[in-house]
Structures are given as structure tokens and as C-alpha cells.
Amino acid sequence: MRSSATQEVVMADGRVLEVLTTGPEDGLPLVFHHGTPQAAVPYGILERPASARGLRTIAYSRPGYGGSTPRADAETTATVADDAVDVARILDHFGAGEFVTLGWSGGGPRALACAAVLPERCRAATCGVGIAPPDAVGLDRLAGMAPENVAEYTAVAQGPAALTAFLEEHGTPMFSVTADLIVLGLGALLPDVDKAALTGELAEYLAASTRHAGAQGIVGWRDDDLTHTRPWGFDLGEIVVPVSIWQGTEDRMVPFAHAVWLTQHVAGARAHLVEGEGHVSLVMQMDRVLDDLLDQAGR
User: Fold this and answer.
1) Which helix (H) or strand (E) holds 236?
2) 140, CA 20 to 30 Å: which among 5, 28, 51, 171?
3) Domain count within the chain
4) Peptide bond preceding 134: is omega within 30 degrees of 0, i.e. cis?
């Protein structure tokens, strides 16, 4: 596996995004969308199996995270779909055409956006433990969430100022988390299966990614929450690209009901609803996730 390289890619509006590439330069691009709050750092648990399958992993820090410029309209009109436009610009920078994409947790909606907005380039998309949209009819989005997430989304509903104050008080400590303390830091968000999985390399990655997310303070986290909870800018029912939905039954960050709803409303979705897995532990099935993604892409 080739070592990781970081570049700055300029968007059409002058913003700069921090982009991390790993794997064979002539490989099919795998665009990875990190969770919330995270940023692009080396991720061997994904990059090694991706490289072994001939994929070139392209991960980027979303606006406001790491070294990526925040969006000027994040508090008002920015949508999840805008991130797919950024992905197209990143691919153009690398001279890439077709790609596959994987989004995990807060990145899940971005993978769906790529399928919806870039159908001529996106060959397949995977939404891993991703949240359902705010207009999900018949779904109580907070039911089954751990208290920490309920408090956060309650602040979201009160507007940008309230959310900013909430994250500055309760979120900022996460930006100094270490691998040995991350289980304690996530508290009730983790069921036992996630606590057992969150050790070693996975703990190191999640801690490093979270620390890097806070390079500019809470702006990236705030803006992620705001775009998650306003209309996403595309219709899930009109997606024509093959999509897989992965979720574990024990998830306390994004309740299992979100994945059930997505499998019923994303056109043609392939469901992988895994008994006994959580939000974090499901990452350890990355080989299966990537094999399924490539199968969906006809590769």
C-alpha cells in the first residue's frame, strides 16, 4: 500500500479542501466520507483492504474540519448535496472519472448525495450507519438515541447560536481525546459491542480523526449538524445508482430504525442489517463492506 499523501484542492468558490489519497494511483477511486465530528487522517482499517482490491482511497476533510475552509452559507442554505459537488471537483483535480463511494455515520448522507447528484460518474455507493433525512416521514429520528445525541439534536433544533454554545461547552473536550480515553469520552453512546471493538488501531484512528476535526474549533461539527437537519437537496427515491445500506442492531448513535427507513426509501437499496453489531464495531467488517460495494459496481 502506497503511503498517504495530503493535498489542498481549490473549489470553484475559492474554498480549499484538505484531501488525503492512499493506494495505487491508477486504481478506481474510492471516495470516503468520514463521520461527525471527524477529519481526514490515515485510516489503515479502510485503506489496506481498499488497496488490496485495487482501489485508490480519496478521503477529504469536509468544510470546517481539519484544514478545509468552512462554507460561507453553512448556517443558512448549504446542503448535503453541496458536498457531492465538492467531490466532483476533487475527482477532476486528480483526473478521475468514475468512482465508488463509502460514507460512514455523518458521512453516510454524503455517499447518498454522490449517488443522487453524480449518477454519470458514481458506479456504486455505500451508506454505513448513516442518519436518515430530517423529512423522513414516519420516523422518530431521536427514538433510540443515547442521551448525548438527543441533547445535541435538541440544540440543533434551537438554531445555530444554541448549537454553537452547546458544542463549545460539551463538544470541545472531544478535540483533545486520546485513544485510551475515547471509550470514556463517548460514554453512553457506546454499547458493549462497540466498547469491545474500540481498541488498538481503531481507537487510535478515531481519536486522531476527532482531534484533527477540531483544528478550527467546533465550526465543522456545527455545520455538519446543520446540513444533516435541513433538506438534503436531492430525492432518495430517484437514485438510480446501486446503493447498499449497512447498520447494526445495537447502534446508539444512529438508531437501527434509520437504516430500516433508508432501505425502504432509497431506490433499489441493498440492505445489510447486521444482528448484534454497533455503530463502531461494524467497521471491523470492512472487507465485507468493500466486497459488496465492488459487487454493486459490477467490479
Assistant:
1) none
2) 171
3) 1
4) no
pLDDT tens for each residue of 265-291: 999 999 999 999 999 999 999 999 999
Cell of 66: 481539519
What is the reported pTM? 0.97
Dihedral (CA of 241, 85, 265, 145) sign: positive
CA-to-CA distance for 274 and 254, rounded, in angstroms? 14
> Is there a contact between 272 and 292 (Cβ–Cβ < 8 Å)?
yes
What does DSSP assign to residue 169? I
pLDDT tens-digit map of 11-48: 999 999 999 999 999 999 999 999 999 999 999 999 99
CATH number at residue 204: 3.40.50.1820
- DSSP E strand boundaries for the chain: 5-10, 16-22, 28-33, 55-60, 99-104, 122-128, 243-248, 270-274
The range of the structural domain enclosing residue 238 comes to 5-296
Residues 6+ apart with CB under 8 A from 143: 255, 257
The residue type at 66? G
Q: Give the bridge partners for 58, in sequence order.
A: 21, 31
